[in-house]
């Protein structure tokens, strides 16, 4: 498949490849034969409707759920991610929507929680604070002080702290789960700027979002999931929000194609004259039972004028109403009420 061109126009090395990923929860197939990849310095948006499998795919990558089928390659080598610790050791950091911050601790303590720097038997507070400021400046973060409790920060600033914390271990891939949800316009712009900084630093970024404006603003490539399957890979430079929404809702069906690095051509890069939707093998629906003609069952259904000449009931003097589907008769109440 011809690869989509990144915004910067420079070649990028493949960091992560997922091929044929499948995951079941009992009788429910959450993922079926899903392909996904990300390069260094690239923002890949993962979009889809609720229940499409986005969160499940991310949790497979984060080590929360082991896959039932498929392979994962990191830097071209096959790997197994059986736990979140395995993902972190590989260089994969996930920032979930709840951020998992300690509101009662300050910014420095949140960034270094569990990875504190020590000077002998005591914590090296000075070094941790200096490194915190250095990292926040690289991200162009707008935080007034690193010694204030996280509870006093805005939503955008809290998201900044969570992203900065994920960069302490120098990850290769950063996963952001709905980073702009419940944020205002100014805070959303701040988070999108952070995502741009991550790309400039060479990180591979996986962005999960329902906001098409955010996706088109920062992503290089968009992967659409629908009902646990791939339903398209699009280059942002060649796609519109209408096309993405059509793939998300199923108005355009590409789930029969394989979206691998060397497989089928994505819809946005299809050759001229090629069919937009790959042919899918399917089952032939057997012919259903013959449907009776409603006009034969009830002439009044075919001729509305006949309804005006409906017979009167001899006992009550009321009009007989004949139902077309069942032929049942309905009589007025004996007390004359309707």
Question: What labels describe this entry?
Answer:
single chain, six-stranded mixed β-sheet, four-stranded antiparallel β-sheet, 11 helices, 27% helix, globular, disordered N terminus
Description of the structure:
With 338 residues, this protein is α/β, with parallel strands linked by helices. The protein is built from 11 helices and 14 strands. The chain has helices at 54-62, 84-90, 107-111, 125-138, 155-166, 185-200, 212-218, 241-249, 294-297, 299-302, 304-307; strands at residues 14-25, 28-39, 43-47, 69-74, 77-79, 92-95, 118-119, 122-123, 173-177, 204-208, 221-226, 229-235, 321-322, 329-330. Strand 4 (69-74) and strand 5 form a beta hairpin. Helix 5 runs parallel beside helix 6 (185-200). Mean pLDDT is 80; it is low at 1-10 and 262-287.
Report the strand count: 14
Q: Which consecutive residue ranges, at least 5 long each, have pLDDT under 50?
A: 1-10, 262-287
Through-space gap between termini: 69 Å
- Taken as a percent bin, the fraction of beta residues is 15-25%
Shape summary: globular
Biggest sheet, strands in spatial order?
Answer: 6-9-10-3-11-12
Please, how many helices?
11
Query: How would you classify the helix and strand content by structural class?
Result: alpha/beta
